[in-house]
Amino acid sequence: xxxxxxxxxxxxxxxxxxxxxxxxxxxxxxxxxxxxxxxxxxxxxxxxxxxxxxxxxxxxxxxxxxxxxxxxxxxxxxxxxxxxxxxxxxxxxxxxxxxxxxxxxxxxxxxxxxxxxxxxxxxxxxxxxxxxxxxxxxxxxxxxxxxxxxxxxxxxxxxxxxxxxxxxxxxxxxxxxxxxxxxxxxxxxxxxxxxxxxxxxxxxxxxxxxxxxxxxxxxxxxxxxxxxxxxxxxxxxxxxxxxxxxxxxxxxxxxxxxxxxxxxxxxxxxxxxxxxxxxxxxx
Length: 283
Known about the structure:
The chain is an alpha/beta fold. It is 46% helix and 13% strand. It has helices spanning 17-28, 40-48, 63-77, 100-128, 148-168, 186-199, 203-210, 222-233, 272-281; strands spanning 8-12, 32-37, 53-57, 82-85, 131-135, 174-180, 244-247. The chain has a seven-stranded parallel beta sheet with strand order 3-2-1-4-5-6-7, with helices on both faces. Helix 3 runs parallel beside helix 4, helix 4 packs parallel to helix 5 and helix 6 packs across helix 7 (203-210). The protein is globular and about 55 Å long. The model is unreliable at 266-283 (pLDDT under 50).
């Protein structure tokens, strides 16, 4: 892979949260960065604080827009070294509750846009021996209750990168996925506000409640996910291919079947009992 100052990185959903943090990280390392998304004002604010970030607005739920995004990136910069499929939307509802329109919206934005980004980016990534990173979720590896379309669409990203990794390895293109847990983003803040309104809490208390069984007992900051993405895009991860890396503070390591048994554990700093006590205190 070329030196950082010569690299061109494309980030979808780059106006806020993980996408914006990834764009800033890449720009600070000297890369030329293009951020894409639907909200022109949000994209502009992110670009304004980081020299080296360029903006292309568009609805990534529309197939033609993804192709245009890649083509315009090449027209402006002449190459593509890394693509980050971060565009996403939350759709709530069980399998029984989710209507076809909501299902299709989740698939279009969370999955199809990533597929199309990969499809149109691959020819250019072959020339630079570049890398593709998809932003999934632990909801794609541990079934949540009431977010069926979101979880299913995120789960499929793991197979997208695995398939790319096998198909494109000989051409020098790597593909990987990160699966964050709770991250303090605008989308998560909105979920916390809704949860807080139902439970009589404020946003901070809501975050404390939903992360009370997380071993690190906090949500991630967007920068913590961005650092992992930037590593996957770079030469330090040159032999990492087809991986789905979980970044969740240990959330998916917790066995819920042992939680009631924690009452019998001798209290210790940072031990299981403190996790359960924290959960009971916030409910």
